[in-house]
Specification:
The complex is a heterodimer of chains A (913) and B (354).
Chain A: H1 2-66, H2 69-88, E1 97-102, E2 107-109, H3 124-132, E3 135-140, E4 146-154, E5 159-166, H4 167-170, H5 172-218, H6 235-298, E6 302-307, E7 312-315, H7 317-323, H8 327-330, H9 335-338, H10 341-357, E8 361-369, E9 372-384, E10 390-399, H11 401-468, H12 475-505, E11 514-517, H13 518-536, E12 539-544, E13 551-554, H14 556-572, E14 578-585, E15 595-604, H15 625-630, H16 637-647, E16 651-656, E17 662-672, E18 687-690, E19 702-706, H17 710-720, E20 726-730, H18 733-745, E21 752-756, H19 764-778, E22 783-788, H20 793-802, E23 806-809, H21 814-825, E24 829-831, H22 843-855, H23 858-869, H24 873-882, H25 888-899, H26 903-911
Parallel strand pairs in A: 12-14, 19-20, 19-21, 21-22, 22-23
Antiparallel strand pairs in A: 1-2, 1-5, 3-4, 4-5, 6-7, 6-10, 8-9, 9-10, 11-13, 13-17, 14-15, 15-17, 16-17, 18-24
Helix pairs in contact in A: 1-2, 1-5, 5-6, 11-12, 11-17, 12-16, 13-14, 14-16, 18-19, 23-24, 23-26, 24-25
Chain B: H1 2-45, E1 49-55, H2 62-75, E2 78-79, E3 85-86, E4 92-98, H3 107-124, E5 128-132, H4 134-145, E6 152-158, E7 171-176, H5 180-190, E8 196-201, H6 204-217, E9 221-226, H7 229-242, E10 245-250, H8 259-269, E11 274-276, E12 287-291, H9 293-308, E13 319-320, E14 324-328, H10 330-336, H11 342-347, E15 349-350
Parallel strand pairs in B: 1-4, 1-5, 5-6, 6-7, 7-13, 8-9, 8-10, 10-11, 11-12, 14-15
Antiparallel strand pairs in B: 2-3, 12-14
């Protein structure tokens, strides 16, 4: 009853205070609100008034801008009043409105009153307006309604602008707000009163419950529920929490005691289990130790354990038996107690290494046995305690004395073997050196032989060529000279063959590839061989398939050499019929990257070769019976040809039967070209002088011939002097330099020097170096062409490296000399007779003619052959005339041959396919 | 407990009221944010249509700058001082190309500028192209894009577009015509009769303009083409006696034109109403009906939006400009003793206000 009265008193006090506060807030709010609304509305209507004022001002400024105020003033006033009416006067009974009166109290603008009305002039509010002119004031209209009014004076037109608002409207919002606020406050008081009553009742409930609980605990009921207040409500929360905590502490202590008793019992049980487990483990350990000891004892290796101070802890049976100690006595002893000092030192040192590094060590050690010192391979490794520290070194040593003995024996054998190999190698090196010296001597001999043979040959061929060009020879002499020339040329061929073979065998031969006209080369080969064939009355036919490329890249000289060899070989063994050379692309290979596979078939109607001996024909220096009977050749032609063809990535195969002729198949690879730079070449005909330049003058060229052999100088001098060149001679390099300097000093430097390479004192290459050096310093340019009987590639290279511009090998052809002068000095020559077409003065004409021959029809060919066979001169001329339009060059050539009555030549020409 | 209960309750009550009020305010704020986010989402989600504006002239040329302003306002795009475009509130991605042919009238230059613009169109692939003034139509649309897929909207093309082959399936636009009829109507109210005088510099353009006035509006003109300022003064004085009103065409090209002297001379010697059709002539004419370049831009941009929303250019007829800006020279009117209607005075710009 007492508690309840506290609650009511508390409630009354709170609600009372709340109501007082609420009403105070209400009154204060209403007052403030009214003030705000008043100010706000005043501002709104004053702003509207200001807007009208600004409109008037803008209009007036524009009127002023016209510069014609009187003219436009009424128009402007009417315009502005019209706009204000349209904007502000919506209905006749509107209560808020703007108005304008002039300073005479005449109406200018009013929603109800007309313009110019003066009926209001005596009204009090009109008088107030006139008096005030600017500001706010309240007035009551005719109906007694209170109004608020704001006014402003527009002096330009003497107008007073006003805005009138009824107070009912002005404060309508404030009234509505006040009523709403009262309603809200009443609602809040009711809600707050209910809420407070509920809260107070709720706050008192735990105190009552705590009282009940304390009585129950006092009676020993520790499990009586206590509602702990978890919301922060000050002392009541602390009280309930403390009370509950106190009760819980007592209860927890009793529970803890009971738990401790149970835990003690469980721990006792666990100790018993652990003791049992340890006994089991001990047994296993003892067994394991016994097994380990058994393994250690039965090992053939020596096993031991030493502590970090080197004292033995354990040894195995093998140790006991070998070093006559017992395991039980060994403990505490060191190696110094068991072994000689030097050995004990080594053992200790090794143990310490293991302890220091912590790594296992594998090492060879020596120990004394009854039969002497034995070699051991020992593996030593550290043993760690529970903390990871090394407490002992364990060693396992295996006796390797027997193996060691075997190894030593092996090493001895190896040493002896090495000595033997060294001795043999030295012997071999000596032999190799001797062989190299011999080979070098052979090469030197060949080079010398070549040089020595070529030198006289140069004289023979040179002079015979010069003499044969003379017009003063009788027929007999001319024949002798030609025999000398042919014999010399033959001898040169033999020397070249021997040299080629030598080069091939020593691997010195290399291919010098160049671009050339393949068709023309075949024609040259044919022309070259034809003389021999003609002499024996044999035919020589070249048939070429149309797909064979005209322009190719290969070693032209070597290919020409092979074909000439094979054709001459065929001619040698043929007495009747003739030889056919067929050229075609090999169908077994496809052309790729421009590489064409060409096959040559050289088929003769000769004596043939015995099938047993067919393999021998490519062996050097071997000639069959027929070859020997022919009395010609070295027997090197075919071997050289095969070697060259193989260098060209091809091969030669011979097929033959005795008495049925032979067939040589040559397969080579060539690179196809679209067109080739065709080398200019000089005519074989006799050159009689230099061609004058376009102005008709002939330049004077100065040349020097340097050679230690007078004959050789004479040959060149005889050849060049008649041409109009100024020639001087030198017998050695030193003299050559002196003469060159002399010419330079006179202001007429030499244009060209023909320089022999092998000379006593200063040789050709040395002289060339010196002259080139001096020429460079002096700013002169002298062409130097080496002329040498040494024909090896290394000789050519040596000359070119020395500074020579070119190289001519002795014996040379006259045409070679002219060709070089044409090449280096750009000289053109006059020939003994005018150029005729068969000499092929231009590559173009040759090509043209070859194409024409291939294009001839079979009927035409047959008709011409028939005409030749019947010697029908008129018919032949007629046939030549028929093709003149299409093939003018060929027709001209044939006509020339007809005129010369050389019908065989015509026959040969039209046989080319 | 008793002591603190009253203030607590008071605070609680006020908090309650404040919460109600703030709640209302927060609601408004949330609503506002939602609207803002909605616009952003809309902009992100919808890919913008690409529109290329090809200007025959250069930036800073008042006429075409006015056209661009009309386009930008219609597309709701903002251009900063450096010419950068901010299109975040627009559905259009706009790009502007200046052909610069006013300062470079050489034909080779114009053709090169057109070819360069063509490359840009072919690579950027706009959804529509707006081309302002004649050179863009003549050198770009006509040779390269007639009946192409891309729609083209031309504007500022003088008098007629038929010489460029327009209209065609993908091209429509607004032709630029001077507001001559409107000018004549106004001047006639204050003239004694209907004789019209025309005065301009002596060059091909001026003669073409006069010829256009005669053929297109059926005007019978008394023409004066002058080379120098003194010639102009003589002609102007003569015209006062010969005609009832004068079209002041253009003073560009008249050698020795002196603005101050011209104004004084006009004030002294004008006896008949004078009028111009370009704002350049407003200081020298009583009344000027000048075209509004922004009208061309606004019409082009609105038409572009129609086309982008699916309307075919073929269905949109070629139109001419309608709006004009009126300039009044009140001292001249005062000199002539003309009282202009208040409606005109209120709508017009006085020359001194320019």
């Amino acid at each position: 009853m007492k508690n309840i009265s506290i609650i009511y008193r508390l409630m009354l006090f709170i609600i009372g205070a709340f109501i007082v506060t609420t009403i105070s807030v209400l009154i204060l709010s209403d007052y403030q609100l009214k003030k705000i609304i008043d100010e706000s509305n005043n501002a709104v209507y004053q702003e509207k008034l200001e807007k009208i004022f600004k409109t008037l001002d803008t209009k007036f400024q524009r009127l002023k801008a016209t510069g014609m105020i009187e003219t436009y003033e009424d128009d402007f006033k009417h315009s502005v009043l019209k706009n204000l009416r349209r904007l502000h006067f919506k209905s006749d009974d509107q209560k808020i409105y703007p108005f304008i009166v002039d300073t005479n109290a005449t109406i200018v603008l009013h929603p109800k009153l007309p313009f110019g009305d003066t009926s209001m002039a005596d009204k009090k509010y009109m008088q107030d307006i006139m008096k005030l002119q600017e500001g706010n004031f309240y007035y009551a209209n005719a109906l007694g309604e209170e109004n608020w009014c704001t006014i402003k004076y527009f002096k330009e037109w003497n107008w007073i602008i006003g805005y009138s608002v009824p107070l009912d409207i002005k404060y309508a919002d404030e009234r509505v707000f006040r009523n709403n606020l009262i309603l809200i406050m009443v609602a809040i008081i009711v809600i707050a009163g209910t809420l407070i009553s509920f809260l107070i009742t709720r706050m008192m409930r735990p105190i009552i419950k705590l009282t009940t609980a304390s009585a129950a605990i006092a009676n020993g009921d520790l499990n009586h529920p206590i509602d702990v207040i978890d919301k922060p409500v000050g002392e009541l929360q602390v009280l309930s929490q403390s009370f509950a905590f106190m009760r819980d502490s007592i209860r927890d202590q009793i529970t803890d005691l009971n738990n401790m008793i149970v835990q003690l019992k469980e721990r006792d049980e666990r100790i018993r289990e652990v003791v049992k487990e340890l006994e089991e483990k001990n047994k296993k350990l003892i067994k394991s130790e016994e097994q380990l000891q058994s393994i250690i004892d039965n090992s053939t290796a020596v096993i031991y354990l030493k502590d970090s101070a080197g004292k033995y802890i354990l040894i195995n049976k093998r140790f006991e038996s070998l070093f006559h100690v017992v395991n039980k006595d060994i403990v505490g002893k060191t190696d110094y107690d068991l072994f000689p000092k030097d050995m004990a030192d080594a053992f200790r040192s090794n143990d310490q290494k293991v302890i220091a590094t912590g790594d296992p060590l594998e090492i060879e050690e020596y120990a004394p046995h009854d039969d002497g010192v034995h070699t051991y391979i020992s593996i030593k490794f550290p043993l760690h305690d529970a903390l990871g520290d090394i407490y002992a070194v364990c060693g396992i040593s295996t006796d390797i004395s027997e193996r060691k003995k075997v190894e030593d024996m092996q090493n001895n054998y190896n040493r002896i073997l090495e000595q033997t190999v060294q001795t043999r190698t030295q012997e071999f090196m000596d032999a190799k050196e001797q062989a190299e010296i011999a080979n070098k001597a052979k090469s030197q001999f060949l080079a010398n032989m070549s040089h020595e043979l070529r030198t006289p040959l140069n004289a023979i061929l040179g002079f015979s060529q010069i003499v044969s060009a003379s017009h003063n020879l009788n027929a007999k002499d001319r024949e002798y000279i030609q025999i000398i020339n042919r014999s010399g040329a033959y001898l040169l061929t033999l020397i070249n063959d021997v040299l080629d073979m030598s080069k091939i065998e020593s691997g010195q031969i290399i291919l010098n590839e160049s671009d050339f006209d393949f068709y023309r080369m075949l024609l040259d080969v044919r022309e070259l061989c034809k003389i021999r064939f003609d002499k024996k009355g044999l035919y020589l036919t070249i048939e070429m398939a149309p797909e064979v490329p005209q322009y190719v890249r290969a070693d032209e000289t070597r290919l020409r050499q092979v074909l000439v060899n094979l054709l001459n070989n065929a001619e040698k063994f043929t007495t009747e019929g003739g030889v056919t050379l067929r050229v075609q692309c090999d169908d077994n290979f496809h052309e790729s990257d421009g590489v064409v596979h060409i096959q040559f078939d050289i088929e003769d109607t000769g004596v043939g070769i015995d099938s047993n001996k067919i393999d021998q024909i490519f062996e050097p220096f071997i000639q069959d019976k027929a070859g020997l009977n022919s009395g010609e050749g070295t027997g090197l032609g075919l071997p050289i040809s095969r070697k060259i063809v193989r260098l060209m990535k091809g091969d030669i195969i011979a097929e033959s039967k005795l008495g049925q002729g032979s067939r040589f198949k040559v397969h080579i690879q060539l690179t196809r070209l679209e067109h080739a730079e065709v080398k200019s070449f000089l005519d074989d005909r006799k050159i009689i002088g230099l061609q004058p330049d376009p102005s008709g003058r002939i330049a004077r060229y100065r040349m020097m011939i340097v050679d230690d052999i007078e004959n050789n100088r004479q040959i060149l001098s005889q050849l060049l002097t008649p041409m109009g060149f100024e020639i001087c001679e030198a017998g050695n390099g030193k003299e050559a330099i002196r003469i060159w300097k002399k010419y330079c000093a006179e202001g007429h430097p030499l244009d060209l020097i023909w320089m022999d390479t092998r000379m006593p004192d200063i040789d050709g290459n040395e002289a060339t170096k010196e002259i080139k050096r001096l020429a460079k310093e002096a700013g002169y340019s002298t062409i130097i062409i080496a002329v040498s009987a040494s024909a090896f590639d290394r000789d050519i290279e040596a000359s070119l490296s020395a500074g020579c511009d070119d190289f001519v090998s002795k014996p040379f052809k006259n045409s070679e000399i002219f060709e070089k002068m044409h090449q280096h000095l750009g000289l053109h020559f006059l020939y003994e007779e005018p150029l005729c077409n068969h000499s092929a003065d231009s590559a173009k004409e040759n090509d043209e003619m070859l194409k024409s021959i291939q294009a001839l029809s079979t009927d035409w060919r047959n008709a011409m052959i028939q005409a030749i066979e019947s010697c029908e001169y008129e018919e032949m001329c007629s046939l030549a005339a028929k093709i003149r339009d299409q093939h003018p060059i060929l027709a001209e050539r044939i006509q020339q041959e007809i005129n010369q009555f050389d019908y065989d030549k015509i026959y040969n020409i039209i046989q080319i396919r | 407990m008793r002591k603190i209960s009253a203030p607590i309750i008071l605070i609680l009550s006020l908090s309650f009221l404040l919460t109600l009020a703030c709640g209302e305010k927060d609601k408004k704020e949330v609503q506002k944010n939602k609207t803002r986010t909605g616009t952003l989402e809309k902009n992100l989600a919808k890919p913008k249509k690409k529109v290329l504006f090809v200007n025959s002239y250069h930036a800073g040329y008042a006429w075409s700058d006015g056209i661009i302003k009309g386009v930008l306002d219609t597309f709701n795009i903002v251009m900063d001082r450096n010419g950068n475009l901010d299109n975040q509130d627009s559905d259009i991605e706009l790009r502007i190309i200046y052909m610069d042919t006013k300062r470079n009238p050489d034909e080779a230059f114009i053709k090169a500028a057109a070819a360069k613009t063509k490359d840009i169109i072919d690579s950027w692939k706009p959804d529509a192209v707006i081309a302002s003034d004649d050179n863009a139509s003549k050198y770009l649309i006509s040779p390269y894009y007639r009946n192409a897929k891309t729609p083209f909207i031309f504007c500022g093309v003088n008098w007629s577009a038929s010489e460029y082959g327009f209209p065609c399936s993908n091209v429509t636009g607004m032709i630029e015509v001077f507001l001559v009829p409107q000018l004549i109507d106004t001047m006639e109210q204050y003239a004694d009769d209907k004789r019209i005088g025309f005065i301009d510099a002596d060059n091909t353009t001026s003669r073409k303009v006069a010829a256009n006035y005669k053929t297109r509006f059926g005007l019978n003109l008394t023409e004066y083409f002058v080379k120098t300022f003194s010639e102009w003064k003589t002609a102007y004085k003569s015209l006062q006696d010969e005609v009832d009103m004068i079209i002041m065409s253009n003073y560009s090209g008249i050698a020795g034109w002196d603005e101050k002297a011209a104004k004084a001379f006009i004030l002294e010697h004008t006896r008949v109403p004078t009028g111009g059709v370009i704002d350049l002539m407003a200081p020298y004419s009583m009344i000027t009906y000048a075209m509004i370049s922004a009208e061309q831009g606004e019409w082009s941009a609105k038409t572009t939006l129609d086309i982008l929303n699916g309307k075919s250019p073929e269905d949109i007829p070629i139109v001419t400009n309608k709006k004009g800006k009126i300039f009044l020279n009140m001292p001249i009117a005062k000199k002539l003793g003309i009282k202009l209607p208040i409606e005109l005075i209120e709508r017009a710009t006085f020359v001194e206000e320019r």
